[in-house]
Design goal:
- The chain is α+β, with helices and mostly antiparallel strands and 177 residues long.
- It contains three helices and eleven strands.
- The radius of gyration is 17 Å and the shape is globular.
- The protein starts with a helix and ends with a helix.
């Protein structure tokens, strides 16, 4: 109970700490990146073919969009993930050629994202990948040759705690109450 309240508070603080102008140089100018579909059919429903299309667009350091986005059927709840963690509390909605905006409110800064996934958390299904960097680590207008993101979830948490000025000792003290 206390842990969930603490996480909710930390996410709210991270969201309020976002500097919209702090966009990494390689992601400035609203670059767009193609969606690379990974799953064609839902494993639990072999007759449900997945239709997926659109682009991932960086708007600013706190906002991304899925543009001209099509995703159906929506048989599972999916989120945007990076570094093994959700990057927005907003779910990806089933759609037909719409634009959906997402607030980056989970404490993972854009500069730490190399690859974003459209991911069904409960079923552990990777629906699509979005490469934000090329082999040289630089981003670009939809670099297709990408590097796979490493699971840097702990470093993302560390960065969030450091940016909020929360020490591990304080966190442990709060959890023990």
């Amino acid at each position: 109970m206390h842990f969930n309240l603490l996480l909710t508070t930390l996410f709210a603080l991270a969201r309020s700490q976002c500097d919209f102008t702090d966009v990494p140089e390689n992601l400035q100018g609203e670059p767009s990146f193609p969606l690379e579909q990974e799953l064609e059919i839902f494993p639990d429903n072999q007759t449900a073919e997945i239709a997926l299309d659109g682009e991932f667009v960086v708007i600013d350091a706190c906002t991304v969009e899925l543009r001209d986005f099509t995703f159906f059927p929506q048989l599972v709840t999916v989120y945007l993930y990076a570094n093994g963690m959700p990057i927005s509390s907003d779910a990806v909605l089933g759609s037909n050629n719409i634009t959906q905006s997402f607030t980056l409110d989970r404490g993972i800064p854009l500069e730490d994202m190399r690859e974003v996934k459209i991911f069904a958390e409960e079923q552990q299904l990777n629906i699509a990948n979005i490469q934000l960097t090329g082999d040289d680590g630089e981003g670009g207008q939809g670099d297709e040759a990408g590097t796979t993101a490493t699971n840097a979830g702990s470093s993302a948490w560390d960065a969030m705690f450091q940016s909020l000025g929360v020490s591990i000792t304080l966190l442990l003290a709060l959890l023990s109450t």
